[in-house]
Protein backbone atom coordinates (compact mmCIF):
# COMPACT_ATOMS: atom_id res chain seq x y z
CA UNK A 1 0.00 0.00 0.00
CA UNK A 2 1.37 3.44 -0.94
CA UNK A 3 1.84 6.07 1.75
CA UNK A 4 -0.96 8.68 1.79
CA UNK A 5 -0.13 12.25 0.86
CA UNK A 6 -1.27 15.59 2.23
CA UNK A 7 -2.84 18.67 0.66
CA UNK A 8 -1.97 22.28 1.44
CA UNK A 9 -4.02 25.25 0.31
CA UNK A 10 -2.15 28.49 0.86
CA UNK A 11 -3.75 31.92 0.51
CA UNK A 12 -6.00 30.83 -2.35
CA UNK A 13 -8.25 33.34 -4.09
CA UNK A 14 -10.48 32.35 -6.98
CA UNK A 15 -13.44 33.90 -8.74
CA UNK A 16 -15.27 34.48 -11.96
CA UNK A 17 -15.81 37.89 -13.60
CA UNK A 18 -17.84 39.94 -11.15
CA UNK A 19 -18.18 37.05 -8.69
CA UNK A 20 -15.43 36.24 -6.19
CA UNK A 21 -15.73 32.70 -4.80
CA UNK A 22 -12.74 32.04 -2.53
CA UNK A 23 -11.14 34.87 -0.60
CA UNK A 24 -7.85 33.79 0.94
CA UNK A 25 -8.37 30.15 1.92
CA UNK A 26 -5.69 28.45 4.01
CA UNK A 27 -6.14 24.75 4.68
CA UNK A 28 -3.94 21.77 5.45
CA UNK A 29 -5.25 18.22 5.03
CA UNK A 30 -2.96 15.71 6.68
CA UNK A 31 -1.96 12.47 4.90
CA UNK A 32 -4.59 9.78 5.40
CA UNK A 33 -7.15 12.15 6.88
CA UNK A 34 -10.88 11.99 6.10
CA UNK A 35 -12.18 15.56 5.96
CA UNK A 36 -15.71 16.82 5.28
CA UNK A 37 -16.27 20.22 3.66
CA UNK A 38 -19.56 21.83 4.69
CA UNK A 39 -21.30 25.17 4.21
CA UNK A 40 -24.17 26.88 2.45
CA UNK A 41 -24.65 26.70 -1.29
CA UNK A 42 -22.29 29.01 -3.14
CA UNK A 43 -19.70 29.22 -0.36
CA UNK A 44 -16.97 27.69 -2.55
CA UNK A 45 -16.88 24.02 -1.52
CA UNK A 46 -17.00 22.50 -5.01
CA UNK A 47 -14.65 25.17 -6.35
CA UNK A 48 -12.12 24.29 -3.65
CA UNK A 49 -12.31 20.62 -4.66
CA UNK A 50 -11.75 21.49 -8.31
CA UNK A 51 -8.72 23.57 -7.35
CA UNK A 52 -7.39 20.68 -5.26
CA UNK A 53 -7.84 18.38 -8.27
CA UNK A 54 -5.90 20.68 -10.56
CA UNK A 55 -8.93 21.41 -12.74
CA UNK A 56 -8.85 25.13 -11.86
CA UNK A 57 -5.93 27.45 -11.21
CA UNK A 58 -6.04 29.93 -8.31
CA UNK A 59 -6.01 33.63 -9.08
CA UNK A 60 -3.71 34.04 -6.08
CA UNK A 61 -2.05 31.54 -3.76
CA UNK A 62 -1.26 27.93 -4.46
CA UNK A 63 -2.38 24.34 -3.89
CA UNK A 64 0.28 21.77 -3.06
CA UNK A 65 -0.01 18.02 -3.15
CA UNK A 66 2.68 16.25 -1.17
CA UNK A 67 4.60 19.53 -1.33
CA UNK A 68 4.30 19.90 -5.12
CA UNK A 69 2.48 22.86 -6.66
CA UNK A 70 -0.41 21.58 -8.78
CA UNK A 71 -0.30 24.63 -11.04
CA UNK A 72 2.77 23.17 -12.72
CA UNK A 73 0.93 20.01 -13.79
CA UNK A 74 -1.22 19.36 -16.83
CA UNK A 75 -4.75 18.11 -16.19
CA UNK A 76 -3.75 14.58 -17.15
CA UNK A 77 -0.71 14.68 -14.88
CA UNK A 78 -2.87 16.00 -12.03
CA UNK A 79 -5.36 13.17 -12.64
CA UNK A 80 -2.56 10.70 -11.98
CA UNK A 81 -2.23 12.24 -8.50
CA UNK A 82 -5.79 13.16 -7.50
CA UNK A 83 -9.15 11.54 -8.31
CA UNK A 84 -12.26 13.72 -8.22
CA UNK A 85 -15.74 12.24 -8.18
CA UNK A 86 -17.97 14.99 -9.53
CA UNK A 87 -21.43 15.63 -8.13
CA UNK A 88 -23.07 14.39 -11.32
CA UNK A 89 -22.06 13.03 -14.68
CA UNK A 90 -23.92 12.69 -17.98
CA UNK A 91 -25.29 9.26 -18.77
CA UNK A 92 -23.55 7.29 -21.53
CA UNK A 93 -26.18 5.09 -23.19
CA UNK A 94 -25.08 1.54 -23.82
CA UNK A 95 -21.88 1.70 -21.76
CA UNK A 96 -21.30 -1.22 -19.42
CA UNK A 97 -20.04 -0.99 -15.87
CA UNK A 98 -16.67 -2.37 -16.95
CA UNK A 99 -16.34 0.17 -19.75
CA UNK A 100 -17.19 3.08 -17.48
CA UNK A 101 -14.73 2.03 -14.77
CA UNK A 102 -12.02 1.63 -17.41
CA UNK A 103 -12.40 5.34 -18.19
CA UNK A 104 -10.64 5.97 -14.91
CA UNK A 105 -7.46 4.57 -16.46
CA UNK A 106 -7.22 7.31 -19.11
CA UNK A 107 -4.72 9.42 -17.18
CA UNK A 108 -2.41 6.46 -16.69
CA UNK A 109 -2.85 4.65 -20.01
CA UNK A 110 -3.43 7.53 -22.42
CA UNK A 111 -5.53 7.50 -25.60
CA UNK A 112 -3.63 4.67 -27.27
CA UNK A 113 -3.68 2.53 -24.15
CA UNK A 114 -7.43 3.00 -23.87
CA UNK A 115 -7.88 1.46 -27.33
CA UNK A 116 -6.54 -1.85 -26.11
CA UNK A 117 -9.17 -4.31 -24.95
CA UNK A 118 -9.14 -5.89 -21.54
CA UNK A 119 -8.90 -4.70 -17.97
CA UNK A 120 -5.68 -4.22 -16.08
CA UNK A 121 -5.23 -5.19 -12.46
CA UNK A 122 -6.17 -1.72 -11.25
CA UNK A 123 -9.60 -1.93 -12.92
CA UNK A 124 -10.22 -5.40 -11.56
CA UNK A 125 -9.29 -4.27 -8.07
CA UNK A 126 -11.52 -1.18 -8.30
CA UNK A 127 -14.50 -3.29 -9.39
CA UNK A 128 -13.89 -5.75 -6.56
CA UNK A 129 -13.18 -3.18 -3.84
CA UNK A 130 -16.48 -1.37 -4.43
CA UNK A 131 -18.38 -4.65 -4.79
CA UNK A 132 -19.54 -4.22 -8.39
CA UNK A 133 -17.48 -6.89 -10.16
CA UNK A 134 -20.58 -9.04 -10.60
CA UNK A 135 -22.23 -6.16 -12.49
CA UNK A 136 -19.28 -5.64 -14.82
CA UNK A 137 -21.15 -6.49 -18.02
CA UNK A 138 -24.43 -4.82 -17.13
CA UNK A 139 -25.40 -1.51 -18.80
CA UNK A 140 -24.84 1.42 -16.48
CA UNK A 141 -28.18 2.97 -17.43
CA UNK A 142 -29.95 -0.17 -16.13
CA UNK A 143 -28.67 0.42 -12.59
CA UNK A 144 -30.34 2.27 -9.74
CA UNK A 145 -29.00 5.59 -8.52
CA UNK A 146 -27.18 4.01 -5.60
CA UNK A 147 -25.67 1.32 -7.82
CA UNK A 148 -24.47 3.92 -10.32
CA UNK A 149 -22.78 5.89 -7.57
CA UNK A 150 -20.84 2.81 -6.50
CA UNK A 151 -19.74 2.32 -10.11
CA UNK A 152 -18.65 5.95 -10.37
CA UNK A 153 -16.68 5.49 -7.16
CA UNK A 154 -14.97 2.48 -8.74
CA UNK A 155 -14.10 4.65 -11.75
CA UNK A 156 -12.46 7.20 -9.45
CA UNK A 157 -10.53 4.41 -7.72
CA UNK A 158 -9.33 3.19 -11.12
CA UNK A 159 -7.27 6.38 -11.37
CA UNK A 160 -5.13 4.68 -8.72
CA UNK A 161 -4.32 7.88 -6.83
CA UNK A 162 -3.58 8.46 -3.16
CA UNK A 163 -6.03 11.37 -2.89
CA UNK A 164 -9.78 10.97 -3.38
CA UNK A 165 -12.05 14.03 -3.61
CA UNK A 166 -15.81 13.51 -3.50
CA UNK A 167 -18.28 16.26 -4.41
CA UNK A 168 -21.56 15.51 -2.64
CA UNK A 169 -21.36 11.72 -3.15
CA UNK A 170 -24.76 11.14 -1.50
CA UNK A 171 -26.80 13.62 -3.57
CA UNK A 172 -30.08 12.17 -4.91
CA UNK A 173 -29.61 8.92 -2.98
CA UNK A 174 -32.02 7.48 -0.44
CA UNK A 175 -30.84 6.99 3.13
CA UNK A 176 -29.94 3.32 2.60
CA UNK A 177 -27.64 4.15 -0.32
CA UNK A 178 -26.24 7.26 1.38
CA UNK A 179 -25.00 5.14 4.27
CA UNK A 180 -23.81 2.43 1.90
CA UNK A 181 -21.66 4.88 -0.09
CA UNK A 182 -20.24 6.61 2.99
CA UNK A 183 -19.38 3.35 4.74
CA UNK A 184 -17.69 2.18 1.55
CA UNK A 185 -15.62 5.38 1.41
CA UNK A 186 -14.55 4.93 5.04
CA UNK A 187 -13.56 1.31 4.40
CA UNK A 188 -11.63 2.10 1.22
CA UNK A 189 -9.80 4.96 2.89
CA UNK A 190 -8.56 2.55 5.55
CA UNK A 191 -7.77 -0.33 3.18
CA UNK A 192 -6.01 1.80 0.55
CA UNK A 193 -4.44 4.44 2.77
CA UNK A 194 -6.22 7.29 1.00
CA UNK A 195 -6.46 10.96 1.87
CA UNK A 196 -10.15 11.79 1.43
CA UNK A 197 -11.94 15.14 1.23
CA UNK A 198 -15.68 15.10 0.60
CA UNK A 199 -18.28 17.82 0.26
CA UNK A 200 -21.38 16.94 2.26
CA UNK A 201 -24.65 18.82 2.70
CA UNK A 202 -25.84 16.58 5.51
CA UNK A 203 -24.11 17.73 8.68
CA UNK A 204 -25.23 14.54 10.45
CA UNK A 205 -23.24 12.44 7.98
CA UNK A 206 -20.24 14.77 8.22
CA UNK A 207 -20.25 14.57 12.02
CA UNK A 208 -20.53 10.80 12.00
CA UNK A 209 -18.14 9.74 9.26
CA UNK A 210 -15.43 12.44 9.05
CA UNK A 211 -12.50 12.88 11.40
CA UNK A 212 -12.48 16.57 10.69
CA UNK A 213 -14.97 19.18 9.52
CA UNK A 214 -13.94 22.28 7.59
CA UNK A 215 -16.71 24.83 7.08
CA UNK A 216 -16.63 27.56 4.45
CA UNK A 217 -18.57 30.79 4.68
CA UNK A 218 -18.40 33.60 2.14
CA UNK A 219 -15.30 32.10 0.56
CA UNK A 220 -13.28 31.70 3.76
CA UNK A 221 -12.68 28.98 6.32
CA UNK A 222 -15.14 29.69 9.11
CA UNK A 223 -14.51 26.61 11.27
CA UNK A 224 -12.01 23.76 11.28
CA UNK A 225 -11.63 20.89 13.69
CA UNK A 226 -12.90 17.56 14.98
CA UNK A 227 -16.71 17.19 14.79
CA UNK A 228 -17.05 17.10 18.57
CA UNK A 229 -15.24 20.42 18.86
CA UNK A 230 -16.67 22.24 15.85
CA UNK A 231 -20.37 21.35 15.79
CA UNK A 232 -22.08 23.62 18.32
CA UNK A 233 -25.23 25.77 18.33
CA UNK A 234 -23.00 28.73 17.45
CA UNK A 235 -21.65 26.80 14.44
CA UNK A 236 -25.19 26.08 13.25
CA UNK A 237 -26.07 29.77 13.51
CA UNK A 238 -22.90 31.30 12.07
CA UNK A 239 -22.10 28.81 9.30
CA UNK A 240 -25.40 27.18 8.34
CA UNK A 241 -27.72 30.06 9.33
CA UNK A 242 -30.10 27.94 11.41
CA UNK A 243 -31.01 27.99 15.08
CA UNK A 244 -30.74 24.63 16.72
CA UNK A 245 -29.47 22.40 19.48
CA UNK A 246 -26.60 19.89 19.53
CA UNK A 247 -26.54 16.62 21.46
CA UNK A 248 -24.43 13.47 21.41
CA UNK A 249 -25.11 10.07 19.93
CA UNK A 250 -25.43 7.77 22.97
CA UNK A 251 -23.43 4.96 21.36
CA UNK A 252 -20.93 6.57 19.00
CA UNK A 253 -20.47 9.90 20.78
CA UNK A 254 -20.56 12.03 17.63
CA UNK A 255 -22.57 15.28 17.58
CA UNK A 256 -26.26 15.07 16.69
CA UNK A 257 -27.96 18.26 15.48
CA UNK A 258 -31.55 19.31 16.10
CA UNK A 259 -32.22 22.27 13.80
CA UNK A 260 -35.21 24.39 14.78
CA UNK A 261 -35.67 27.21 12.26
CA UNK A 262 -33.74 29.22 9.67
CA UNK A 263 -32.18 32.50 10.71
CA UNK A 264 -32.70 35.69 8.80
CA UNK A 265 -30.03 38.31 8.30
UniProtKB/TrEMBL annotation:
<protein>
    <submittedName>
        <fullName>ABC transporter ATP-binding protein</fullName>
    </submittedName>
</protein>
<keyword id="KW-0408">Iron</keyword>
<keyword id="KW-0472">Membrane</keyword>
<keyword id="KW-0406">Ion transport</keyword>
<keyword id="KW-0813">Transport</keyword>
<keyword id="KW-1003">Cell membrane</keyword>
<dbReference type="Pfam" id="PF00005">
    <property type="entry name" value="ABC_tran"/>
</dbReference>
<dbReference type="InterPro" id="IPR017871">
    <property type="entry name" value="ABC_transporter-like_CS"/>
</dbReference>
<keyword id="KW-0067">ATP-binding</keyword>
<dbReference type="InterPro" id="IPR051535">
    <property type="entry name" value="Siderophore_ABC-ATPase"/>
</dbReference>
<feature type="domain" description="ABC transporter">
    <location>
        <begin position="7"/>
        <end position="243"/>
    </location>
</feature>
<dbReference type="InterPro" id="IPR027417">
    <property type="entry name" value="P-loop_NTPase"/>
</dbReference>
<keyword id="KW-0547">Nucleotide-binding</keyword>
<dbReference type="InterPro" id="IPR003439">
    <property type="entry name" value="ABC_transporter-like_ATP-bd"/>
</dbReference>
<dbReference type="GO" id="GO:0005524">
    <property type="term" value="F:ATP binding"/>
</dbReference>
<dbReference type="InterPro" id="IPR003593">
    <property type="entry name" value="AAA+_ATPase"/>
</dbReference>
<keyword id="KW-0410">Iron transport</keyword>
Amino acid sequence: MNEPVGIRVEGVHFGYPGRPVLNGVDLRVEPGELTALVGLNGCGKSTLLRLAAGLLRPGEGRVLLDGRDLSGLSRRAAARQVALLHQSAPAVPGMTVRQLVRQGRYAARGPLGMLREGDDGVVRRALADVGVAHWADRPVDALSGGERQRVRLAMALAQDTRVLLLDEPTTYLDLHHQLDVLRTVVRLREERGLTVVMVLHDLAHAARFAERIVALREGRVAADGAPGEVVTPGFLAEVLRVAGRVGRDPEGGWPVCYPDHPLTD
